[in-house]
Amino acid sequence: MKRFHWSLILLTACLMAATTTAASAAVLGTLEVNAGYAKDANSGSYVSDGTLGGGVAFGAGYYRSLAPLLSLGVEVALDNLGSADFSDPLFGDGQVSAKAFRINPALRVNLGAPVGPSFFAQVGAGLYNVPWEVSFDSGGSVDGSDSKFGANVGGGVGFPVGPKTRMHLIGQYHTVSTDGESTNYFSIKAGLGIGI
Q: What is the mean pLDDT of the chain?
Protein backbone atom coordinates (compact mmCIF):
# COMPACT_ATOMS: atom_id res chain seq x y z
CA MET A 1 0.00 0.00 0.00
CA LYS A 2 2.88 2.40 0.74
CA ARG A 3 4.30 1.83 -2.74
CA PHE A 4 0.93 2.75 -4.22
CA HIS A 5 0.77 6.04 -2.28
CA TRP A 6 4.36 6.97 -3.19
CA SER A 7 3.56 6.22 -6.84
CA LEU A 8 0.58 8.59 -6.67
CA ILE A 9 2.72 11.34 -5.16
CA LEU A 10 5.34 10.87 -7.90
CA LEU A 11 2.63 10.91 -10.58
CA THR A 12 1.22 14.15 -9.15
CA ALA A 13 4.65 15.78 -9.21
CA CYS A 14 5.20 14.71 -12.83
CA LEU A 15 1.79 16.00 -13.93
CA MET A 16 2.37 19.33 -12.21
CA ALA A 17 5.78 19.67 -13.87
CA ALA A 18 4.30 18.82 -17.28
CA THR A 19 1.50 21.33 -16.78
CA THR A 20 3.98 24.01 -15.73
CA THR A 21 6.23 23.56 -18.79
CA ALA A 22 3.30 23.32 -21.17
CA ALA A 23 1.82 26.63 -20.06
CA SER A 24 3.27 30.01 -20.78
CA ALA A 25 5.72 31.33 -18.20
CA ALA A 26 3.75 34.62 -18.02
CA VAL A 27 0.53 32.86 -16.96
CA LEU A 28 -0.04 32.39 -13.24
CA GLY A 29 -1.19 29.13 -11.72
CA THR A 30 -3.73 28.66 -8.95
CA LEU A 31 -3.30 26.41 -5.92
CA GLU A 32 -6.65 25.28 -4.53
CA VAL A 33 -7.65 23.58 -1.28
CA ASN A 34 -11.20 22.46 -0.54
CA ALA A 35 -13.34 20.52 1.89
CA GLY A 36 -16.92 19.32 1.97
CA TYR A 37 -19.12 16.24 1.89
CA ALA A 38 -19.22 13.07 -0.25
CA LYS A 39 -22.22 10.75 -0.54
CA ASP A 40 -22.52 7.29 -2.06
CA ALA A 41 -24.92 7.15 -5.03
CA ASN A 42 -25.04 3.32 -5.34
CA SER A 43 -28.52 2.61 -4.05
CA GLY A 44 -28.39 -0.82 -2.47
CA SER A 45 -24.91 -1.69 -3.72
CA TYR A 46 -23.18 -2.09 -0.38
CA VAL A 47 -26.14 -2.75 1.86
CA SER A 48 -29.58 -4.13 1.17
CA ASP A 49 -31.45 -1.25 2.81
CA GLY A 50 -29.75 1.80 1.29
CA THR A 51 -26.51 3.58 0.61
CA LEU A 52 -23.50 4.49 2.71
CA GLY A 53 -24.04 7.44 5.04
CA GLY A 54 -21.53 9.83 3.48
CA GLY A 55 -18.66 11.66 5.10
CA VAL A 56 -16.02 14.37 5.01
CA ALA A 57 -14.24 15.02 1.72
CA PHE A 58 -11.16 17.14 1.21
CA GLY A 59 -8.60 17.75 -1.49
CA ALA A 60 -6.21 20.04 -3.29
CA GLY A 61 -5.47 20.98 -6.86
CA TYR A 62 -3.19 23.05 -9.03
CA TYR A 63 -4.43 24.73 -12.24
CA ARG A 64 -2.59 26.56 -15.02
CA SER A 65 -4.34 28.75 -17.55
CA LEU A 66 -4.18 27.52 -21.16
CA ALA A 67 -6.39 30.32 -22.50
CA PRO A 68 -8.41 33.11 -20.90
CA LEU A 69 -11.35 30.79 -20.20
CA LEU A 70 -9.61 27.39 -20.13
CA SER A 71 -7.46 25.82 -17.39
CA LEU A 72 -5.68 22.48 -17.04
CA GLY A 73 -4.79 21.07 -13.66
CA VAL A 74 -4.33 18.10 -11.41
CA GLU A 75 -6.45 17.21 -8.38
CA VAL A 76 -5.80 14.98 -5.37
CA ALA A 77 -8.64 14.17 -2.97
CA LEU A 78 -9.82 11.80 -0.25
CA ASP A 79 -13.58 11.30 -0.19
CA ASN A 80 -15.05 9.40 2.76
CA LEU A 81 -18.21 7.66 1.54
CA GLY A 82 -19.22 6.81 5.11
CA SER A 83 -20.60 3.61 6.59
CA ALA A 84 -23.88 1.75 6.93
CA ASP A 85 -25.24 -1.12 8.99
CA PHE A 86 -26.34 -4.32 7.30
CA SER A 87 -28.13 -7.51 8.25
CA ASP A 88 -27.44 -10.80 6.47
CA PRO A 89 -29.19 -14.08 7.37
CA LEU A 90 -26.05 -16.07 6.55
CA PHE A 91 -23.28 -13.88 8.01
CA GLY A 92 -25.17 -11.88 10.63
CA ASP A 93 -25.20 -8.16 11.33
CA GLY A 94 -22.35 -5.76 10.74
CA GLN A 95 -21.17 -2.53 9.22
CA VAL A 96 -19.66 -1.67 5.82
CA SER A 97 -17.59 1.44 5.05
CA ALA A 98 -15.71 2.80 2.03
CA LYS A 99 -13.48 5.69 0.96
CA ALA A 100 -12.15 6.93 -2.37
CA PHE A 101 -8.67 8.37 -2.86
CA ARG A 102 -8.17 9.90 -6.28
CA ILE A 103 -5.60 11.69 -8.37
CA ASN A 104 -6.58 12.98 -11.78
CA PRO A 105 -5.89 15.63 -14.38
CA ALA A 106 -8.86 17.96 -14.94
CA LEU A 107 -9.94 20.45 -17.57
CA ARG A 108 -11.92 23.49 -16.41
CA VAL A 109 -13.90 25.85 -18.64
CA ASN A 110 -14.82 29.24 -17.13
CA LEU A 111 -18.22 30.42 -18.30
CA GLY A 112 -17.91 34.06 -17.33
CA ALA A 113 -15.61 37.03 -17.21
CA PRO A 114 -12.12 36.43 -15.79
CA VAL A 115 -12.87 39.02 -13.08
CA GLY A 116 -15.84 38.99 -10.73
CA PRO A 117 -18.13 36.04 -10.01
CA SER A 118 -18.16 33.33 -12.65
CA PHE A 119 -19.49 29.85 -13.29
CA PHE A 120 -17.30 26.97 -14.46
CA ALA A 121 -17.66 23.42 -15.76
CA GLN A 122 -15.04 20.73 -15.17
CA VAL A 123 -14.22 17.20 -16.34
CA GLY A 124 -11.48 14.90 -15.08
CA ALA A 125 -10.33 11.30 -15.30
CA GLY A 126 -7.60 9.36 -13.56
CA LEU A 127 -6.71 6.85 -10.88
CA TYR A 128 -9.13 6.10 -8.04
CA ASN A 129 -8.28 3.85 -5.11
CA VAL A 130 -11.41 2.60 -3.32
CA PRO A 131 -10.69 0.82 0.00
CA TRP A 132 -13.63 -0.83 1.76
CA GLU A 133 -14.14 -2.74 4.99
CA VAL A 134 -16.87 -5.04 6.31
CA SER A 135 -16.89 -5.64 10.06
CA PHE A 136 -19.21 -8.17 11.69
CA ASP A 137 -20.90 -7.67 15.04
CA SER A 138 -19.97 -11.24 15.96
CA GLY A 139 -16.28 -10.39 15.46
CA GLY A 140 -13.89 -10.30 12.55
CA SER A 141 -13.73 -8.17 9.45
CA VAL A 142 -12.99 -8.34 5.75
CA ASP A 143 -11.38 -5.54 3.79
CA GLY A 144 -10.08 -4.85 0.33
CA SER A 145 -9.02 -2.16 -2.07
CA ASP A 146 -9.50 -1.56 -5.80
CA SER A 147 -7.33 0.82 -7.83
CA LYS A 148 -9.15 1.55 -11.05
CA PHE A 149 -9.70 4.18 -13.70
CA GLY A 150 -12.46 6.65 -12.87
CA ALA A 151 -13.93 9.87 -14.16
CA ASN A 152 -15.73 12.89 -12.80
CA VAL A 153 -17.80 15.75 -14.12
CA GLY A 154 -18.93 18.81 -12.26
CA GLY A 155 -19.52 22.49 -12.10
CA GLY A 156 -19.44 25.35 -9.72
CA VAL A 157 -19.20 29.02 -9.04
CA GLY A 158 -16.18 31.11 -8.05
CA PHE A 159 -15.92 34.66 -6.78
CA PRO A 160 -12.99 36.89 -5.85
CA VAL A 161 -12.19 37.63 -2.21
CA GLY A 162 -8.83 39.34 -2.80
CA PRO A 163 -6.40 40.38 -5.54
CA LYS A 164 -5.06 36.83 -6.02
CA THR A 165 -7.64 34.85 -4.07
CA ARG A 166 -10.94 33.28 -5.15
CA MET A 167 -13.46 31.21 -3.23
CA HIS A 168 -15.40 28.51 -5.03
CA LEU A 169 -18.19 26.02 -4.52
CA ILE A 170 -18.05 22.88 -6.67
CA GLY A 171 -20.27 19.84 -7.07
CA GLN A 172 -18.97 16.70 -8.79
CA TYR A 173 -20.29 13.30 -9.82
CA HIS A 174 -17.72 10.47 -9.76
CA THR A 175 -17.85 7.00 -11.31
CA VAL A 176 -15.23 4.27 -10.80
CA SER A 177 -15.24 0.84 -12.46
CA THR A 178 -14.44 -1.24 -9.37
CA ASP A 179 -14.65 -5.05 -9.35
CA GLY A 180 -18.18 -6.41 -9.51
CA GLU A 181 -20.06 -3.13 -9.76
CA SER A 182 -19.16 0.50 -10.39
CA THR A 183 -18.77 2.86 -7.45
CA ASN A 184 -20.66 6.10 -8.00
CA TYR A 185 -20.77 9.06 -5.64
CA PHE A 186 -21.39 12.79 -5.38
CA SER A 187 -19.24 15.38 -3.65
CA ILE A 188 -19.88 19.00 -2.75
CA LYS A 189 -16.94 21.12 -1.62
CA ALA A 190 -16.12 24.71 -0.79
CA GLY A 191 -12.60 25.88 -1.37
CA LEU A 192 -10.07 28.64 -1.68
CA GLY A 193 -7.82 29.25 -4.69
CA ILE A 194 -4.65 31.33 -4.39
CA GLY A 195 -2.76 32.62 -7.43
CA ILE A 196 0.94 31.78 -7.26
A: 83
